[in-house]
């Protein structure tokens, strides 16, 4: 399989993720968009590792680290979203600005 096909798929996934982060205000949708971007990075890592054929599996190893980072990010992000929903009844990222302390806003 040529290298361009997984790279094009990764570009599409990354662009969808960027659009989801910039255009949407729902915190759950933003977390899913971050996951799309991380999956695009993983796809690039594995595709370049398969293309390079070095035997060290460096790209696959880095992809495992990125998956671990994504799992930690989702765990922390979902905890914040659940706390936001429990306290305010919504998960709107723009409306979360009232979480600032009174002395912290400038």
Automatic annotation (TrEMBL):
Bilayer topology term: Multi-pass membrane protein
Compartments where found: Cell membrane; Membrane
Stated role: NDH-1 shuttles electrons from NADH, via FMN and iron-sulfur (Fe-S) centers, to quinones in the respiratory chain. The immediate electron acceptor for the enzyme in this species is believed to be a menaquinone. Couples the redox reaction to proton translocation (for every two electrons transferred, four hydrogen ions are translocated across the cytoplasmic membrane), and thus conserves the redox energy in a proton gradient.
Keyword NAD: yes
Alphabetical list of InterPro entries matching this protein: NADH_UbQ_OxRdtase_chain4L/K (IPR001133), NUOK/Mnh_C1-like (IPR039428)
This protein's UniProt keywords: Cell membrane, Membrane, NAD, Quinone, Translocase, Transmembrane, Transmembrane helix, Transport
Segments crossing the lipid bilayer: 62-85
Gene3D superfamilies: 1.10.287.3510
Catalysed reactions, as listed in the record: a quinone + NADH + 5 H(+)(in) = a quinol + NAD(+) + 4 H(+)(out)
Quaternary state and interactors: NDH-1 is composed of 14 different subunits. Subunits NuoA, H, J, K, L, M, N constitute the membrane sector of the complex.
Gene name tied to this protein: nuoK_1
Name this polypeptide is given: NADH-quinone oxidoreductase subunit K
Enzyme Commission number: 7.1.1.-
Keyword Ribosomal protein: no
Enzyme class: translocase
